[in-house]
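We emphasize that the prediction below concerns an isolated chain of 226 residues; any contacts that depend on oligomerization or on bound cofactors are therefore not represented. The input was used exactly as deposited, without trimming of termini.
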Amino acid sequence: MAEENTTQPNQEQPSELIPPKAGQEPTPVAQIPEPSEIDLLKEKISELEALANQYKDQLLRKAAEFENYKKRVESDYISIIKFSNEELILRLLPVLDDFERSLKAWKNSSSGNNAEQAKEGTAENSFIQGVELIYNKFKNILEKQGVKTFEVIGKPFDPEYHDAMMQIPKNDVPPHTVVDELEKGYMLNDKVIRHAKVIVSADAQVDSGTKSDDSEISKSTDTGVN
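Result of the prediction step, given as a token string:
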């Protein structure tokens, strides 16, 4: 008895799998993420962008702080170079004052001498000329270091530059005007290292029929001038 063919004529036969050709990899099929996964990825991207912006802002702040620090250090360095010899110069200024006082005293005394004593070539004049030479050389050295004086006579009183030692009533100048200089003031480059000691004008108000010597000269501390 012949074997019965169990295969139905209309039954589909399973298709045979066609293996990939030699040297050809099978094409991967892309997986489409679920909507929930897309939302998670978008959220993660937003977090990373926010973090990147935060790091960028911190970096910019640090760069600005470093730039300010560098400028501050450069400014301090320049200041140190400009004013490193300030203490030494302050110690030398009284010597310069002594030179000026000595020369001024000699000129005042010699102005009353006769022509023979004042004639050039005398021993005294030779000595004074030598002192003047030393004084000018000393002064030039200080000037090359940035030391300079400043004008005070006729200027309004300024506590940044002046120390008022006394006040004198004056009618010909406005009140609080410098009328005399007792000691020179000095600057080192653009910094005042010694205030000028000055006499300042005051209102010349005298009561009718009265005179008071005390009203002519009064201490600046008593009149409120600093």
